[in-house]
């Protein structure tokens, strides 16, 4: 997988895991705002990327309007379908 595919897949997996743990019937849509339990360095290590690559991919997704980054550990998924397409 490319770096973009790895990051997109990671974000989707994290959103799905957080949704499973909250499991609210009223909130059937996948959680769109999540607090990542990892730093960017930890994400890079986990995915076999450099921290610079992780940061560039987050910025690219943000610039494309797919996600927003309210804080260093928060991600809001604005366009899940586009993120799924990025994941391949």
Secondary-structure topology with pairs:
Elements: H1 3-22, E1 33-35, H2 40-47, H3 51-63, E2 67-71, E3 74-77, H4 80-87
Antiparallel strand pairs: 1-3, 2-3
Helix pairs in contact: 1-4, 2-3
Notable characteristics:
88 residues; alpha+beta; three-stranded antiparallel β-sheet; 4 helices; globular
In short:
Helix content is 56%, strand content 14%.
- The ordered string of helix (H) and strand (E) elements is HEHHEEH
Portion of residues within helices: 55-70%
Are there runs of 5+ residues with pLDDT below 50, and where?
Answer: none
Counting DSSP E segments of at least 2 residues, the number of strands comes to 3
**What portion of residues belong to β-strands?**
5-15%
Measured on Cα atoms, how large is the radius of gyration?
12 Å
Instruction: Give the CA-CA distance, first to last residue.
Output: 9 Å
- Summed up, the helix count is 4
Structural class: alpha+beta
Quote the average pLDDT.
88
Net shape: globular
Largest sheet: 3 strands, antiparallel
Strand order of the largest sheet: 1-3-2
């Amino acid at each position: 997988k490319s770096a973009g595919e790895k990051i997109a897949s990671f974000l989707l997996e994290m959103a799905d895991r957080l949704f499973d743990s909250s499991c609210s019937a009223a909130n059937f849509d996948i959680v769109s705002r999540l607090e990542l339990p990892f730093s960017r360095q930890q994400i890079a290590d986990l995915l076999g990327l450099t921290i610079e690559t992780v940061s560039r991919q987050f910025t690219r997704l943000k610039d494309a309007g797919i996600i927003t980054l309210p804080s260093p550990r928060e991600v809001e998924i604005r366009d899940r379908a586009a993120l799924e397409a990025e994941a391949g």
